[in-house]
Amino acid sequence: MEKDPNNILEEVTQGDYKYGFYTDIEMDTAPVGLTEDTVRFISAKKNEPEWLLQYRLDAYHKWLEMTEPTWAHLLHPPISYQDIIFYAAPKKKKELSSLDEVDPELIATFNKLGISLEEQKKLSGVAVDAVIDSVSVKTTFSETLEKQGIIFCSFSEAVQKVPDLVKQYLGTVVPSDDNYFAALNSAVFSDGSFCYIPKGVRCPIELSTYFRINAANTGQFERTLIIGDENSYVSYMEGCTAPMRDENQLHAAIVEIVALKEAEVKYSTVQNWYPGNKKGEGGIYNFVTKRGICKGNNSKISWTQVETGSAITWKYPSVVLMGDNSVGEFYSVAVTNNYQQADTGSKMIHLGRNTKSTIISKGISAGFSNNSYRGLVKMTKRAENSRNFSQCDSLLLGDKCGAHTFPYIKTENKTSIVEHEATTSKISDDQLFYCNQRGISTESAIGLIVNGYAREVLKQLPMEFAVEAQKLLSISLEGSVG
Amino acid sequence: MKIMDGTIVTSYNTRDALLKLYEENSERIGKNDSARISALRKEGISLFKQKGFPHTKLEKWRNTDLSKVLNHNFSFPLEADSGEVDFEEVFKCDVPGFDTFMVAQLNGKFIDRGKIISQSVQGVVVCSLAEAFIKHPGLIEKHFGQYAPASDSSLTALNTAFARDGVFIYVPDNISVTETVQMVNLIHSGNEVFLQTRNLVILGRNSSLRLVQCDDSVDDQIGFINSVTEAVIGENSSLDHYKLQNKNDRSALINNIYFQLEANAVLSTNAISLNGGLIRNEANVKLNGRGAHADILGVYLMDRNQHIDNQVFVDHSQPDCTSNEMFKGILDDHASGVFNGHILVRRDAQRTNAYQNNKNILISDKAVIDTKPFLEIYADDVKCSHGATVGQLDSEAMFYLRSRGIGMENARMLLMYAFAAEIVNRISIPQLRLRIDDLVKKRLRGELSVCDQCVLHCNAKEQKVAFEIDMSRI
Amino acid sequence: MLSIKNLHVSINGKEILRGINLEVKPGEVHAIMGPNGTGKSTLASVIAGRDIYTIDEGDVLFKGKNLLEMPIEDRASEGIFLGFQYPVEIPGVSITNFMRTAVNEQRKYHGLDPIPANEFLAKMEEKKQMLEITAKLANRSVNEGFSGGEKKKNEIFQMAMLEPSLAILDETDSGLDIDALKIVANGVNKLRRPDNAFVVITHYQRLLDYIVPDIVHVLFDGRIVRSGGKELAFELEEKGYEWIKASLV
Description:
heterotrimer; A: about 475 residues; alpha/beta; six-stranded parallel beta barrel; about 25% helix; disordered C terminus; B: about 475 residues; 2 domains; ten-stranded mixed β-sheet; 10 helices
């Protein structure tokens, strides 16, 4: 009669990682390990101004004094920082001026990932910055955007082109000594995306960065800085993948967002770093600091993330609500399977009056994985009449995984309202029977129910991403879909 | 530093003073110990020596700072004080119709008033812990220190090292204790005292007990109480437990209770905190048998510079257990509150049903609340949910009441009362519920201070409450 | 079409069905009546394949195939539809998405390609109009926040979409007001064809005013104790179940 649900769960959780290939590209790398010389090497490679080198060195010295945080609900062997290559770049033959000069292997790599670097073949309405290992290889549509005064380029390029803007905002949202991994990134960050939307401009297309770790034994430390000037709007997307390897690779990124008066920045991530194999070997250690500041009144920052990859995820996209009436949002779906571990959530720091924040988090655990929501909502004295609503739900598939919820709520004024709700549940037998009775197999039913469960978050994603995210959810949990 | 018959008066380094005190008196403290208990004490003191008092770097103590309340010139009485207090006056209970079997501790020492619980013929024992060490060594050996692991907290470790006196309650199988046992802990001392009390409550199978634990100050002296209670509830037994706290603003009270529930046991514990300089209640509830159920409730009304910290740890280690946590608090002036709830559902604890909620109202902009409702779940067939809210009084309800002609102040009072009533209404002893209800009203009107007697003898003249309105009709 | 022989079913060792015999032919409408707790819903669930029951004895054949060996979804694809007494809520899954998945999986079972999106939407529209269902229902999550009547209408709508050869409606009339009852009954009547059959489980005769059965069975204490034409339903309504009980002694 009925298939044993446990077997089915096993079947549906055997999804393979289809981005696990490796591309053989000629690389330019830094010597293994981290010393002051490594920091100088990276800075010199990028021909950086002295102030930036000093910024890096300062961060490096702070990092040496700090210790790795241990408060997260994560277990992993110690990371050996001296065995990591901190800089790896596809070897450039000369300065790129057109796509024809990009290594064909690279173009093929991105094609294989479904990301075309050729503008005419691209998804309409999305500009892409492609970052492989440590550096940006190609930014599409940048000329089109320039006409409106929008700057969208690699971080290294921005340091050369608009050094004053970079200097003005770098490290203002995530200080270099914010935490252990932020300090590390501030010392050795390689490349990433830079984005500036001028006053009153609504960015007409989606901006997107695609991150790819390719080289072995290499850490990836990209840095993204987005500035929404007064009364501007931008929607930004980030995607990522890595080859399958037996060893763990470190990824420690920083994303900083600044929203000035009346500006709105929407940041969406589909994180699909290699999660390791079914035995929990290999996979990316993903220690990321993402934070935005609603600096001006009436500004808004919205984070949406779909987390399916990485062996370990340590990530708390946050919003500092400084301007009065500013709005912060966090929508998250985190799926863990096999031996993956995720400790993720958000921080909403209310400083301004009448500020509002929303946190919707949906955790889905399967296999032997552990999935934790960790969040902080803080209402300071000045944040009168502010509101937060948080909902953090967990869905368990199988009896060997864990789902945890660690909310921290601190309120220091009497006019603010904070509400937190959470539930933990499994897919009920009644739901499965109902689907089965309509002719839907248990495997499809689980996919259907999980997607339905995550719908509130998925609908926040830009169209182009939503489809990919839905597929990913199915791949992460099912055998054959995709 | 002067030493006189077991009392050391020190300045400031409380930890070292305690270590020295232990070293000098360990033989006296442990004179009735078995080998196991002797080892427990040694483990306790060495853990305390190693860790010292909990500090704000520890996750569980992040928002409760003991450094100030420990920075006093404490005395550490090891023996009972002489009779400066008129016990008959103290133990005059004026709760109408609330007939309890009262046991009292003065400055941490059990006061033997020669009274014996009526069901003693059936084997029920209520006596001092010190007496139990001598008269019931079998029970002590089986239960003492089994539910409160020294590794849990350095304060528990310290308490175990020094544990001498406190209340011992034993209810054999198949006995429903008819009298409510009321434990009154009074502090009355000319000195600044540091006290450690230890209670042990043992319920056999198919038994039941109602227990009211009152912590009161008699004077306004500085004091620090480190109290540990172990309670084991046997199969099919039930414990109905209340903590009433009405302490002065200069006192610190750490009330750490370890409950263990066997199969189908039922626990209801309700912490009612009305006053106190610094109160920390830790309720550790281990659901150790199938079908056990625990209600863990609390209400706190704090103002001035008072600090309240409720820590609840519910350990679902067996299948088919249910737990229900609800804490509500109102904070005014500079008061600060902490709620840290932690539900752990272990791997095989299938069909667990756990609920956790913490609701707070801040009355003043100087008041602060930290709430952390945690869920840690390793079993899939569970229903767990939690919620936490911080807010103010419902403005629509305020409008509704005022539109019916109720003045602003009374409307506010009424809504605060209604907020607290959800917990108060769950007190199952009718006389006690009425009394607490009255105390809450007085507290909200600002009429309740720490009276010179225990919380249940509040002799202040009854005043007609201005807001006697049937809440169910609103 | 459906042939049940000497079916004995228990749950947790407690026997609920004690030897059911039932033959349903294409084009027929059967009504199963009986007091609460006599095993009506159990029978419906067992035919659909609910696995909480133990089959102690007996056979259930559907179009000549042994139903008891089939997984739930295969039974559905073979053409069995169960209208639930208490339809479950599936948050976040729209009815459109749900139905498309169901239709396509059933098509896959029969070796057919998935239905093209436009064709599917047209079919949804057609069935909705036929059943006089307002457009809003389809975009909502399956049964989430539905009223009792909406849930039952949604069941009939799904039945129309899936075009089963045998539909078992388990107390579809319970909790319905008279207007909703008419819509539900109307739907069933519109879907009646010579090649399909219905088993209507109900507690009251009321529904049978609108869905006229060919054969009425009375289920009592796990057995079919009486079968007859539609008059039997009126007789039951008039005399009550006590009459059955008395006549059994």
